[in-house]
Design goal:
four-stranded mixed beta sheet, alpha+beta, Glutaredoxin, 7 helices, binds glutathione, globular, 2 domains, Glutathione S-transferase Yfyf (Class Pi), Chain A, domain 2
């Protein structure tokens, strides 16, 4: 099994953190140099046509290319500890929060970052198709992430973890969102006491260094 990675990128980090929580360490990790746009070269696109990381290639050459799909595969392969819910209700809660964090936090954080940074001029969307940057999305993305941090803070005032009473993939995605938003100088504020408590707890987990 091969895991195509780029150490600094947020999406592969989500999957690495998930694997670390499960103690999965028998996967061959191959770095794809996004700094040199290796992901769009013929060699990597023959492996993963979408030209993004992460990608997992199984021993029978099956491609799984989407960080959450990779997590799902490992959850089924090795159910303990459960990171995607233990029963119908929890699975639905995890899915709900995972979607909300992605759609209301993670994607707007991506809009802010990709539409601002000159390095991504003409490449505002990851992958092989070229899209121009839209400066208005920087402003809108920032406002949306800041609003979502308020929502997350409120949630973490009512719940120890994002989805329910145990650590799940929703916590991983929210943690990576906060670190990623930091690249655009969007920070957890003093008023976010619950979020700060949860963020420090999550950062101190060994998987945060994966
Ligand atoms: N939805 C995909 C997104 C993958 C993605 O956008 N990965 C980024 C790194 S975080 C990438 O490969 N970027 C390549 C590029 O910018 O061309 C997933 O979760 O795996």
């Amino acid at each position: 099994m091969k895991f195509y990675d780029f150490k600094a990128a947020p999406n592969p980090r989500r999957a690495r953190m998930f694997m670390a929580e499960k103690g999965i360490n028998d996967v061959e990790i191959i770095q794809v140099d996004l700094g040199n746009v290796e992901q769009l070269g013929n060699e990597y696109r023959a492996i993963n046509p979408s030209g993004t990381v992460p990608a997992l290639v199984l021993d029978d050459d099956t491609l799984i290319a989407e960080s959450v799909a990779i997590c799902r595969y490992f959850e089924e392969l090795q159910p303990l500890p459960p990171l995607m819910g233990r029963n119908a209700k929890e699975k639905a809660q995890v899915e709900m929060w995972q979607r909300q964090v992605e759609l209301q936090g993670y994607l707007p954080a991506g809009d802010t970052f990709r539409n601002h940074n000159k390095r991504f001029a003409g490449r505002a969307i990851p992958g092989p198709e070229n899209y121009e940057q839209i400066p208005e999305l920087v402003v809108r993305g920032r406002a949306r992430v800041e609003h979502f941090l308020d929502i997350l803070d409120q949630r973490l005032g009512a719940s120890e973890f994002v989805a329910n009473d145990v650590f799940t993939i929703a916590d991983i995605t929210a943690f990576i969102l906060i670190e990623f938003a930091g690249w655009s100088k969007i920070a957890v504020q003093e008023k976010h006491a619950n979020l700060q408590r949860w963020y420090q707890d999550t950062k101190s987990r060994p998987s945060a260094d994966a």
